[in-house]
Specification:
Blueprint lengths: L9 H4 L28 H8 L15 H17 L4 E7 L5 E10 L4 E2 L6 E2 L4 H14 L24 H5 L12 H9 L7 H10 L15 H14 L3 H10 L8 E2 L13 E2 L1 H7 L15 E2 L2 E3 L10 H4 L1 E3 L1 H12 L6 H8 L2 E5 L2 E5 L4 E5 L2 E10 L2 E8 L4 E7 L1 E2 L4 H13 L22 E12 L10 E8 L2 E4 L3 E10 L2 E10 L8 E9 L11 E4 L7 E10 L7 E10 L5 E5 L12 E11 L2 H10 L5 E4 L5 E3 L2
Parallel strand pairs: 6-16, 17-20
Antiparallel strand pairs: 1-2, 1-15, 2-3, 4-9, 5-9, 6-8, 7-8, 10-11, 11-12, 12-13, 13-14, 14-15, 17-18, 17-27, 18-19, 20-21, 21-22, 22-24, 23-26, 24-25, 25-27, 25-28, 26-27, 28-29
């Protein structure tokens, strides 16, 4: 066994800092958003129609049929290989053609399919719309960017060293209110009760600053609650009314509103949470799950739609929208339809802020991200059961927005593949790879781990590794349960049996003091020999090594948060029962570095400690291994 170096620090990476929106139902019908919300003005109608022109006679450009087919195949395949129940995607190409697609389920229990009109809690995708509202007030002379916030809110005298700009670009030093455990427990105690931003900010006032204003950058939702109060103070209107009048109605965003928790929205997709990851990541011990009132589950996933009252996140992230509306918003913002050029210049001025314990370039409510397709402008967003990403790619002129009803996952590989398809105009031969309807096994005399993985194969020494997408579900006597497998990647390796590929994913352990759980699926070169015409193959005692499962608890070395020095196996493949594998595409040899790997597995799961130790002993692997002083691994003493 070789050294396992630099495992992702999940407990830090999954901070609550981007959980920037509320969760509750709301409705477009009978809203208090004001008249004509469904029509907007001429510019808004043109943007939604795809014409990008104020001339209603201009026909919209036609979206490429080949690209539309390829993107729909990508969405279908993403649902097959990720934990997402469903998602929607909107694309605007450089010539102004629009396309929206959807895949998967909006509501699992009800069997309701996702559609292009499905709405989501878009989390911090709220921030660009709030920032645009503030910048319009700057243009009107009602707000000054570099004025102290106390110019408008004198009641917060202790924050007089914080300016409006510092609130907008995350240099305020205000602590994250979703990181205050006592406050979060209070907020989840009764999600039917609205809360005011003043009540939340009182808890922020009582907590220590993260740093003195303007001495560092750190993402915090607290700053955007203060901005909401400034909007109300200088306009005399409620923030949701002002945002609606200034941004939503002019752009004709018919399915977008700041949720105040007073409405019921039948088009709002249910949001799902894997609490085994999201709970501890939020700083909440596993016992907290039992304190949540009126919890509902589907297939082991916590339904997060109504976990918090939406007013909790207000102008920090209570926006409800569609991928189409979000793409229209970012395109209009970047195209100069909402702000003057000098305001856009200010918006794009970035500072380095800490986000997920890593640096991000943050402007005035706008993120700048580096991607393989060039630097992009936009914002990501998380909510309890939702994730959102909306970006403009200036190098290609493409705008995208993809919304997902699951927390928590990583979507970089999905977005990169999507952009590659868009820039190539589609791929005629792209057929989605899906698991056969009869493939995944259910509990019989024991559990099965049902696995799907899609991603590029990394070389043995590649760092950082290219991540893929994975779905891991444990079929038990009590029904399906989510399993640890976030940040999945596939890496070439070798053993005494020959070359192999190891698919690795990570998770948290609520049962012991282990720092991380590592799930590994070892695919040997023999797996790819003897597949049937559909790429399927039984896994039994005679060929157990074709696809072998190892699940280990791991502990970091003292003083480290990434390097492991102890591992103990908790589960392996059960050689006494038959499983199955399926590999997509016709391959007869082990894929090489850079190749796309798509593989499904239904693996008999063995977690009896005595049997696990016995099976590992037969193949020469200690049940617990420790890193030695000479950097080798051996059985722990």
């Amino acid at each position: 066994m070789k050294k396992v170096a630099r495992i992702p620090m999940l407990a830090v990476l999954l901070l609550p800092m981007l959980l920037a929106c509320g969760s509750d139902s709301a409705s477009i019908q009978g809203t208090d958003l004001g008249p004509d919300v469904l029509t907007g003005d001429t510019v808004g109608d043109a943007l939604l129609d795809g014409t990008d022109s104020v001339d209603p006679g201009t026909p919209p450009p036609e979206f490429s049929a080949q690209l539309a087919t390829s993107l729909q195949a990508l969405l279908d395949e993403h649902v097959a290989f990720s934990p997402d129940p469903g998602l929607t995607l909107t694309v605007r190409t450089a010539d102004g053609a629009w396309w929206t697609g959807a895949a998967g389920m909006s509501d699992i229990a009800a069997g309701k399919a996702m559609t292009g009109d499905s709405q989501f809690r878009v989390g911090s995708n709220t921030k660009p719309i709030v920032a645009a509202t503030v910048l319009q007030l700057v243009e009107e002379g009602k707000v000054t960017l570099d004025a102290p916030l106390t110019t408008y809110l004198p009641e917060y005298a202790e924050w007089s060293d914080i300016t409006v700009r510092m609130l907008m670009d995350m240099r305020s030093g205000l602590p994250e209110y979703l990181g205050l455990l006592s406050l979060v427990l209070q907020l989840v105690a009764d999600p039917t009760v609205p809360v005011t931003p003043q009540e939340i900010l009182q808890a922020v006032r009582e907590a220590p600053r993260d740093f003195p204003a303007d001495t560092a950058g750190k993402y915090t939702n607290s700053s955007y609650l203060v901005l909401g109060l400034i909007i109300e103070k200088v306009t005399g209107n409620a923030a949701d009314v002002e945002i609606n009048a200034r941004i939503i109605q002019p752009l004709g965003l018919a399915h977008t509103y700041l949720d105040m928790g007073t409405l019921v929205n039948p088009d709002l997709a249910q949001g799902y949470i894997d609490f085994s990851l999201a709970g501890p990541a939020l700083g909440l011990p596993s016992s907290t799950e039992g304190l949540l009132p009126d919890t509902e589950y589907t297939d082991g996933l916590l339904i997060g739609t109504n976990l918090l009252h939406p007013t909790v996140n207000w102008t920090a992230g209570a926006l409800v929208s569609t991928s189409r509306d979000m793409a229209v918003l970012i395109h209009a913002l970047m195209d100069g339809n909402l702000l003057k050029p000098e305001s856009i210049v200010e918006m794009k001025k970035t500072v380095v802020a800490s986000l997920f314990n890593g640096p991000v370039l943050y402007g005035l409510g706008l993120q700048t991200r580096t991607t393989p397709q060039g630097d992009v402008y936009g914002h990501g967003g998380l909510n309890f059961g939702y994730q959102a990403a909306t970006y403009f790619f200036p190098d290609s002129g493409v705008t995208i927005s993809h919304l997902h009803n699951f927390l928590l996952d990583s979507y970089d590989s999905f977005q990169n593949e999507m952009m590659s398809l868009i820039l190539a105009g589609g791929e005629p031969a792209f057929t989605p790879c899906l698991a056969p309807a009869d493939f995944y096994k259910t509990y019989d005399t024991g559990a099965y781990l049902n696995v799907a993985f899609k991603g590029r194969v990394n070389g043995a020494t590649d760092e950082p590794r290219i991540q893929g997408n994975a779905s891991l579900r444990l079929a038990t006597a009590d029904g399906p349960l989510p399993f640890t497998g976030i940040f999945p990647s596939a890496t070439l390796g070798s053993s005494a049996a020959g070359p192999n590929i190891t698919i690795t994913g990570y998770g948290l352990d609520n049962d012991t003091d282990a720092d991380v759980v590592v799930t590994s699926l070892v695919l040997s070169e023999t797996l790819f020999a003897g597949l049937d015409a559909d790429g399927r193959k039984d896994l039994a005692v005679a060929n157990l090594g074709d696809m072998f499962l190892l699940v280990a608890r791991a502990w970091y070395a003292e003083g480290s948060t990434t390097v492991v020095d102890r591992m103990c196996y908790k589960a392996v493949s059960d050689y006494q029962r038959v499983g199955e594998a399926r590999v997509c595409a016709q391959v007869e040899t082990l894929p090489g570095k850079g190749d796309m790997l798509r593989v499904f597995g239904s693996i008999p799961y063995l977690d009896d400690p005595v049997k696990v130790a016995g099976l590992l002993g037969q193949i020469g692997i200690p049940a617990c291994s420790c890193l030695q002083t000479d950097a080798t691994w051996a059985a722990c003493e």
